[in-house]
Amino acid sequence: LEMKLRVVGKKIFNYVRYDLKEIAFPSSLPDPPNIKKRRRLTLKEKFFVLKKACRLYAASWVRDIGPDLRPHAYKKNTIDDSKDHQPHDAKDKEEPSVLEDLAVAARGGMETLRPALQRVYMTRASAYRDALRSFIEGYQQGIQQVMEKKED
Prior knowledge:
Elements: H1 2-24, H2 43-59, H3 71-83, H4 88-94, H5 98-108, H6 110-151
Helix pairs in contact: 5-6
């Protein structure tokens, strides 16, 4: 009996020590030999990355991020804005936002809210479908380029 308890205890100990650890925190596959490891970031660089990511995340909750966070994207827009003399507010007044559209539909009751929600879901589904389609096309082009390099 004591021997069986010892064997069972050893198996439980090994399970917790090795198998459970691998289940809870799986180890990643080793890197291929041709991959060069990048240097680790310093504490200052980590702080800079975290600060930049937090600013971009906070700015993503508003509609227009602004030139202070994405200056490269706004260089092109300043050239286009010089041609287009229509104020920014007039463009927004022409087409209501999705949120405003849903708010108006919610005031009308369930019979007007259902088609508005269906429009939102359909536009998001089409956006996801288009993004997936473009990803697949790009992936196939990448595979073709790799295959052409291997043939050469």
